[in-house]
Amino acid sequence: MAAVLLYVSAGLTHVTPWLIGAGGDTVDGAGRVWRIDDIRESTVAVMLFTMLFSSTLALLRIGREHAGSANESSALCGFHLRAVAAFADELRNQRGISRENYGDGP
């Protein structure tokens, strides 16, 4: 987890200069003029689509593994579905709606 956080923090270091950095122009060895703002914008765009995306996927995978195996997750999902169904049944009972005619609107 620490490695993923360090990786994403290294990528996020490009955001601050992009937001508050001074603009201007720079010239490369071939004499071409480049705008510094354009270079920073492209750096942040590349970071968002590579470093941030892969870090998010890694954190989601770590979180899923930490939460348990797929069987435990599906069991938990099944528990929630049964709880919602029981709540819906109780609500229908309180309102006097039978299961047979549930869904028949006016």
Give the topology, please.
Elements: H1 2-12, H2 15-20, E1 25-27, E2 33-35, H3 36-67, H4 70-95
Antiparallel strand pairs: 1-2
Question: What's the quick description here?
Answer:
The chain is mainly α and 106 residues long. Helix content is 71%, strand content 6%.
The computed structural class is mainly alpha
How does the major sheet shape up? 2 strands, antiparallel
Could you say which overall geometry the principal axes of the C-alpha atoms support?
elongated
Order of helices and strands: HHEEHH
Strand line-up across the major sheet: 1-2
**How far apart lie the N and C ends?**
55 Å
List keywords for this structure.
single chain; 106 residues; mainly alpha; two-stranded antiparallel sheet; 2 strands; 6% strand; elongated
Structure notes:
This protein is mainly alpha-helical and 106 residues long. 71% of the residues lie in helices and 6% in strands. The chain contains 4 helices and 2 strands. The protein has a two-stranded antiparallel sheet. Strand 1 and strand 2 form a beta hairpin. Helix 1 (2-12) packs antiparallel against helix 3 (36-67). The chain is elongated. The N and C termini lie far apart (55 Å). The relative contact order is 0.09.
